[in-house]
Fold:
Amino acid sequence: MRQDVDVTPVWMMRQAGRYLPEYRKTRSKAGDFMSLCKSPELACEVTLQPLRRYAFDAAILFSDILTIPDAMGQGLFFETGEGPRFKKVIRTQSDVERLPVISAEKDLSYVMSAVSLIRKELNGSVPLIGFSGSPWTLATYMIEGGGSKDFHRAKAFMYNDRNAMHLLLDKLTDAVIDYLNAQIRAGAQAIQIFDTWGGILTTPGYFEFSLNYMKKIASSLIKEYDGAVIPVILFTKNGGQWLEKIADSAADAIGLDWTTEIGAARQRVGGVCALQGNMDPAILRTSPSVIRKEVGKILENFGEGNGHIFNLGHGITPEVDPDNVSAFVDAVHEISAQYHT
Structure:
C-alpha cells in the first residue's frame, strides 16, 4: 500500500468546513446542516471547494458521522452553537432492540448519490475518501443524546448492562459495514473510521467496546474494487497508547492525534501500518512562519521514506484564516521533498 511518492501527501480533517467563506455561503443556501448533507449536489460542491483553493492530495466526502443513527430513526438535528442532538435516545435494552436494521443503499441513498457525483466530478484528479463513525462513537451520541463532556450516561449504560451495550455495538457494526461497503461500490477509494471518543475508555474497555468492533469492520470491508485496493484508516483520538493493538487489525493506516510523537509511533508500528497525522489544529491559528516550522518538525520526526500521510491531529476549527491553510499545504509539499529522494 505504501507507494513511492515525491512528496508527502496531505489532506485535512474537516477540510470542507466553516473556515471557508464559500462553504458558509453554500450552507446558508441549503438552509441547515442536514439539508446540506442530504443534497448530493450541494455535498459535492462543498467537497470540491477546498480542492479549488488548495493542492490537497485527497477529497474527503462531505457528510456527518451520525447519518447511521439518523437513518435508524433517532432524529438527528443540529442546534446553532450546540452541535448534534437526537430527538430519541437510548436508555434501555428495549430501546436497543427496537432499532431497525437499515439498508445503506436505500436509507442512506443520498450519501451514495453524493459519492458517485463527487467521484465523477473529480475525474481521477485525486482519490475520494469515504468514512463513518466507529460503533462506540456512534453509541455515545445515541445514549447521551448529543455531545458530552464526561459521557457519564454512555459509561453508566456500558457498566450497568454490558449485554445491552454489546447488542447496540453489534447492530451499529453491521450497519457501518453495510454503509462503508456501499460507499466503496459508489466510488469511495479509501475509507476512514473515526473513533472520536474511543480515547475516553479504560484500556480493557477500549479493547472490548471499541477496537474489537473496528477490527470486525476493517476485516469485513471490500478489499478491492474496480481493480484497485481500498485502504482503511483507523483513527482513535487519544489512542496513542494502543498503537500496537490498533496495528494488529485489518487497517492499512493509523490516524494519530497530536499527543503521540509520530517518530516514536513509526518505530512502534511503522513496519505494519502507514501513519496519518498529526499536527495540532491550533497551529493553523498562528502565522505562516510558525506553521512552516511546525510542519518541518513533524516531517523531520517521521524521517525519510514513505508511509506518512500528513494531516491534522483532529479537525480544522472555524476560526482559521484560509490563507494559513495554503501555508500549511505548501509547507508539507515543499519541505517533504527532501525526505523522498
